[in-house]
Design a protein that fits this description.
This protein has a single domain, classed as Spore Coat Polysaccharide Biosynthesis Protein SpsA, Chain A (Alpha-Beta Complex). It is built from eleven helices and ten strands. A four-stranded mixed beta sheet has the order 4-8-6-9, sandwiched between helices. The chain has a three-stranded parallel beta sheet with strand order 1-2-3, with helices on both faces. Helix 5 packs across helix 11 and helix 8 packs antiparallel against helix 9. The two termini are about 20 Å apart.
Length: about 270
């Protein structure tokens, strides 16, 4: 279990509660922390996790965790996620048949926008938006781990490479639940602006996949129509939320266009 963190105290304890509470506990918990100042490291130590401190982006942090891992399989989790109680047991069983696993993701939170986000996420189940989070360690090392230059789209990039490399990819029934908390529209749009400013690297590396994954038709219109069909009020909210998110990401993309520096993808050794 590899978890990158940065000032994640609000959600981290519940995340680790769900990890420790597994019917089959993980063999190890590696937390790669970006010098948090809110008590996140103390929470990691409280749960007996191995704490590694590094001023690294999420892709590099995951690779650091992979390098220090001694397990035959790894699951990458974010600090705002809660795991279904049988997830590790199911992953262990399915990895006897597959080399990588997609874990379905949903979300919950407080307020209108959190509900819109939750309904939107559900429309992406079994779609090109999903990406593998669990891997055989040897298979992941054969891919070179995560692309360290990517700060957005890194999950998709790894999944795309896994498919191109011919890895067998399965899917769990157990799920991961994102804790959105009290959803802040302003905070969300700031995050989307940042993702937009760094997404060019992913688009260059994955031109065909990015056209499908970042297409406004698929990311705005389709989820809106699906939610509108049974919940018109939140369907209208999904339309507004996704339109604002795409606008923020587009502004970020324009601000970052041409400033991205080229760097080779160095595999995990």
């Amino acid at each position: 279990m590899i978890i990158p963190t940065h000032n994640s105290a609000r959600t981290f304890q519940r995340c680790l509660d769900s990890v420790i509470g597994q019917t089959t506990p993980p063999k190890e918990i590696l937390v790669v922390d970006r010098f948090s100042v809110d008590g996140t490291p103390k929470i990691a130590e409280k749960f007996g996790a191995k704490l590694i401190k590094s001023d690294a982006n999420r892709s590099v942090a995951r690779n650091i965790g992979l390098k220090h891992s001694r397990s035959e399989a790894v699951v990458f989790v974010d600090a705002d996620m809660m795991l279904g109680p049988a997830l590790i047991r199911e992953c262990s069983r399915l990895l006897q048949q597959y080399q990588a696993l997609v874990i379905p993701e949903t979300s919950f939170g407080e307020g209108f926008w959190a509900k819109c986000k939750s309904l939107e996420r559900r429309t992406y189940l079994n779609s090109e938006i999903e990406a593998a989070r669990c891997f055989s360690r040897s298979a992941l090392l054969s891919l070179g781990g995560y692309n360290p230059i990517l700060e957005s789209g890194e999950d998709w990039d790894l999944h795309n490479r896994a498919k191109a490399f011919g890895l067998s990819i399965g899917r769990t029934k157990s799920t991961i639940l994102h804790d959105e908390g009290k959803h802040s529209l302003v905070r969300t749009l700031r995050k989307k602006f940042h993702y937009g400013s760094t997404i060019s690297a992913y688009m260059r590396a994955n031109p065909q996949a990015s056209r499908a994954q970042l297409n406004p038709l698929g990311r705005i219109i389709r989820p809106t129509l699906k939610v509108l069909s049974y919940d018109p009020i939140h369907g209208a909210g999904v339309l507004m939320l996704k339109t604002l998110e795409f606008t923020a990401a587009g502004a970020g993309w324009l601000s970052g266009k041409g400033t991205f520096f080229k760097s080779e993808h160095r595999p995990v050794e």
